[in-house]
Write a structure and sequence with these properties.
The protein is an alpha+beta fold and 361 residues long. The protein has 2 domains: 203 residues, DD-peptidase/beta-lactamase superfamily (Beta-lactamase, 3-Layer(aba) Sandwich); 125 residues, Beta-lactamase (3-Layer(aba) Sandwich), CATH 3.40.710. 36% of the residues lie in helices and 17% in strands. It contains 12 helices and 15 strands. The protein has an 8-stranded antiparallel sheet with strand order 4-3-15-14-13-12-11-10, sandwiched between helices. Helix 2 packs antiparallel against helix 12 and helix 3 packs parallel to helix 8. The protein starts with a helix and ends with a helix.
Length: 361
Amino acid sequence: MKTRSCLLFLVLTVCFATAFNGQNSAPVISSDGKYLFYNKAIPQNEILKELVEKVENGKYDKVNSILIQIDGELVFERYFHGFDRNKLHFIASAHKTMISASIGIAIDQGKIKSVDEKVLDFFPEYKDIKNLDDRKRNITLKDLLTMSSGLSWEGDNIDMPKIIESDDWIKYMLDLPLSHDPGTFFKYTTGNRILLDGILQNTTGLSAKEFTIKYILTPLGITNYYWKTNKQNIAFHGGDIQFRPIDLIKFGQLYLNEGIWNDKRIISQEWIKLSTSPHIKVNDLHNYGFQWWLLHKNNPFCTTIKENDVFIAIGAGGQIIWIVPHLKLVTVLTAEGNTQQESSAIMWDYIVKFAQNVKNH
């Protein structure tokens, strides 16, 4: 594997080395001190060259960064609109995958027994819960992870402001009525993540932020971030969680490595596989794992990518971490208002084609 990675890096370096011009000659050093390529340089690869031109010429003008890593080697890193490697970027709901990872680690540590535990059992301090019935009593941790809790949710733009104004975010969520039976219907509900934060805090003694820093960010060498929490130590959302794209690559690589980083086990292989497997159908295009998006078999992209051979962290506005195991590909895209259609076009029309070309050479 090491020899293969070195050969791949050598081939890519030879192919790309002639692409750098004098105006963009500032060297880029990775966070672990390893020399990569030149910042803002355009590789002499027609696929990526066309992509950069479309970003700069207005087709995808909301894109702020594109990073591509293949076989553990960062082969493309480009920033736009004043962003650079050291600037933080909001990642919106893409951070939910980190909370999922933290839940998995807490299970690995025995702090949480399983995803089948009942949600209300994690919150014994709440005695007077509204709209309480057997359906609510049967909501499980798995239902929160798969966005199928059944709790009534009008939408993030409607409900999140109400939660932020409330004195107790956990109680707000626990008091909601149910609109569906738990585990039967996908409804994207950021409030489910609030309950996940509370579960981590009640079972580990650390806030979700503190736990994630200790057991994920610190082992990955990620020290530069912004993570706003409320008085209950629960994370806000949207622009209140920010990371450097180069560090999101590390998190994606951790999953591609099935939980191993620098020869050390961070997350169990069992959790990686379980959390990135389909657990509920979203629509005819997507399935959903434990806070990860997956392709449904009817998705047209399954003609070139196997159904379960891509998993994606998605945040509003075009914040994306793509992982494609059979191509050994991790891609990070950040943007300022990209639609999902635009992000998908960038991925499938350019980045996957580029990675397939690399794999075939």
